[in-house]
Every structure is written in structure tokens, then in C-alpha cells.
Amino acid sequence: MAKLSYEKAYKELEDLLSDLKEEKIAVDKLADKIKRASELIKFCKEKLRNTEEEIAALSDES
Question: What is the number of domains present in the chain?
Fold first, then answer.
């Protein structure tokens, strides 16, 4: 996931959630898709947290 951008991760997560809501995911793939969604959520939260910390540090320097 190192090369994944926030925008791409968020889009993939939206697509996964849409597929889940529309029941487009086969039962055999459901656990893998849920695991991927969990990883994407964690990735996005971390990106947002890091960005908030960088902005706060820049604000403190001003």
C-alpha cells in the first residue's frame, strides 16, 4: 500500500462498499473484501492523521 494515494484508497473503499450494498460480492470472496476494506480504512485514517499532524506542526511554526 506504500504507493497507494489517499484518493485511490478512498475510491476503492467506496467501490467495495457499493458492491457490498448491492450484494455484488460472492460469499466466497466476502471475507477477503471485508479484510481489504478494513486495510483501506486503516490506511485512510493514518493518512488523515499524518496530514493533521503536519498541518498542526506548520501552524505551530508560524
Answer: 1
Question: In this predicted model, what pLDDT tens digit does every residue of 16-48 receive, in sequence order?
Answer: 999 999 999 999 999 999 999 999 999 999 999
Q: Do residues 13 and 37 lie in contact, with contact meaning Cβ atoms separated by under 8 Å?
A: yes
Give the Cα separation of 40 and 13 in Å (integer).
6
- Identify whether 1 is part of a domain: no
Q: In the numeric block, which cell numbers belong to residue 62?
A: 508560524
Rounded-to-integer distance, Cα 12 and Cα 36, Å = 9
What is the pTM assigned to this prediction? Answer: 0.84
In terms of residue numbers, what domain contains 42? 6-61
- The amino acid occupying position 30 is L
Which grid coordinates are listed for 13?
473503499
